[in-house]
Amino acid sequence: MKIAGKITIDDLPRICPLLSRATNPRYGTENRRVVEVRGVRFGAGSPVVIAGPCSVESWEQTMELAQIVKGSGCDMLRGGSFKPRTSPHDFQGLGVEGLKILRAAGDKTGLPVVTEVIDVRLVDTVAQYADMLQIGSRSMHNYPLLVEVGRTRKPVLLKRGMAASLCEWLGAAEYVALGGNLEIVLCERGIKAYPSGEYSRFSLDLNVIPAVHAHTFLPVIVDPSHATGVATMVEFASRGAIEFGCDGLIVEIASDRVDAPRPVCDADQAIDPPTLRRIVRFISEREESAAGKVRVEEYAL
Ligand code: PEP
Ligand code: MN
């Protein structure tokens, strides 16, 4: 019996003809589209590491963390300035002031910056300051916003909705692509599963990485910070994601100076600088060894 409205993997060529592997044979069975953000290449073989604060909270905090991100050997700087918070009474981000701080920190360190756009009315403003536009988990289903970022020519980091299937996620990416913007990097950030929230914030769906690679040519990175919500799990989640063949990581960090203010946003999942350095070292050592050359290639549904 066919359930009305139910979509399956077999529907992907119809849902996303621009992005499905099946409808784009020139990518073969495993080639990725390389998405470039000011010289940083996603899907080119070596995993990309993006790190930074959850939210841009001050000039000093962002400058300090940008130097740490750069000094650790990461490729890009992250930091939210328009924050989609569960309560409207919570800190909502510094807005345009935060965009300016992030831009300045990126320029000072030479790191490209990615930041979230949550409002269709702010796409041009955010695009003025950011090198890459992030669509958050809560906005993945905001189709007018996807259309609007699809009209820009800025690379897009499209997070997976916290309860989205692969088909829904790739359907959202197709909205961006239809505007002519194929510079899309997908991001798995944990999904709601039955035990989510009991011992970790969400459930990291590593299984989806080879599935993404099997069904689309877009690169996919992993956010171990929101997926776990627990700082001590972030390094393990990062290593697992790399073993599963992801094209990069986006990680939240905080200063470990004793007099540094505690982050207002997502403090419990922020890793310290030594942990970030270990993650980067794990990736580079793995790339140098034979193990890094072994990819999860055999995957079929
Ligand atoms: C973020 O990366 O700042 C964020 C809010 O993540 P998510 O949309 O995955 O919850
Ligand atoms: Mn966060």
Q: In words, what does this structure look like?
A:
By secondary structure, this protein is an alpha/beta fold. Helices cover 34% and strands 13% of the residues. The protein is built from ten helices and ten strands. The strands form two sheets. An eight-stranded parallel beta sheet has the order 9-8-7-6-5-4-3-10. It has a two-stranded antiparallel sheet with strand order 1-2. Helix 7 (208-215) links the parallel strand 8 (184-188) and strand 9. Helix 2 packs parallel to helix 3 and helix 9 runs parallel beside helix 10. The longest helix has 16 residues, at 273-288. The radius of gyration is 18 Å and the shape is globular. The two termini are 20 Å apart. The model has no long low-confidence stretch (mean pLDDT 95). It binds phosphoenolpyruvate and manganese (II) ion. Residues 54, 226, 252, 265-266 line the site of manganese (II) ion.
Count of helices?
10
The computed structural class is alpha/beta
Cα end-to-end separation: 20 Å
Oligomer: single chain
Strands in their spatial order, largest beta sheet: 9-8-7-6-5-4-3-10
Largest sheet: 8 strands, parallel
What overall geometry do the principal axes of the alpha carbons give? globular
Any ligands, ions or cofactors bound here, and which? phosphoenolpyruvate, manganese (II) ion
Fraction of residues in H or I helices: 25-40%
| Rg from alpha-carbon coordinates | 18 Å
Mean pLDDT: 95
Total strands: the figure is 10
Uncertain spans: none
Strand/helix succession: HEEEHEHEHEHEHEHEHHEH
Beta content: 5-15%
